[in-house]
């Protein structure tokens, strides 16, 4: 069975974007010691244009062959003309307001995210990457098998949290940590055994 991984950048205080959805302050944290790690260990999580710019356009997908996005995650690229931000992956955008896809390589789905993910998990292939955002992550929480947080050494104070859902504490098992000189820590968690 395929695994759903929420691989996301966050501040130390748990925000994935500013209050208005801005995330440039997180991109500034891609330090010289951390960027090579992303390019070699997680190449498919780089947008297609960035892969070309970094010379890894032909790098094979190491972990994922499918990416899931909420409308808020998809829109910033769309606003600058990137209708297919991850052309090297199967792209699924969950939205009730975007009725048709601006690109034939991007599947827009209004169906229940949990049902869609459960079906995707039954298919053959690599893992499924939940790219963002908070509302979609909150809805998919029961199906998230792994949480990988790129925790950047910055405080935001407020903004969009990792998950937007009701209060329901869930224990996780820490399965890995990696610390970088620039202060970034990659934290990997799995569902805690019941």
TrEMBL record:
Instruction: Identify the SUPFAM superfamilies for this entry.
Output: Dihydrofolate reductase-like
The Bacterial bifunctional deaminase-reductase C-terminal domain extends over 2-185
Concerning Gene3D superfamilies, the annotation shows: Dihydrofolate Reductase, subunit A (3.40.430.10)
A Pfam family matched by this chain, by name?
RibD_C
The record's InterPro entries line, in alphabetical order, gives: DHFR-like_dom_sf, RibDG_C, Riboflavin_Biosynth_HTPR
Identification of the protein by name: Dihydrofolate reductase family protein
Originating organism: Kitasatospora aburaviensis
């Amino acid at each position: 069975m395929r695994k759903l991984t929420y691989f996301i950048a966050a501040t130390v205080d748990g925000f994935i974007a500013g209050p208005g959805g801005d995330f440039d302050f997180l991109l500034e944290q891609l330090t010289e010691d951390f960027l090579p790690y992303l390019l070699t260990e997680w190449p498919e999580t780089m947008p297609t244009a960035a892969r070309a710019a970094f010379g890894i356009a032909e790098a094979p997908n190491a972990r994922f062959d499918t990416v899931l996005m909420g409308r808020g995650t998809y829109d910033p690229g769309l606003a600058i003309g990137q209708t297919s931000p991850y052309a090297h992956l199967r792209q699924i955008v969950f939205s009730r307001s975007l009725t048709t896809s601006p690109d034939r390589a991007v599947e827009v789905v209004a169906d229940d995210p949990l049902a869609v993910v459960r079906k995707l998990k039954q298919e053959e292939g690599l893992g499924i990457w939940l790219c963002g955002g908070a509302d979609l992550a909150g809805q998919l929480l029961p199906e998230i098998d792994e949480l990988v947080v790129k925790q950047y050494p910055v405080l935001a104070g407020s903004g969009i949290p990792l998950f937007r859902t009701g209060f329901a504490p869930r224990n996780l098992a820490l399965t890995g940590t990696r610390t970088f000189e620039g202060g970034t820590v990659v934290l990997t968690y799995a569902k805690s055994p019941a």
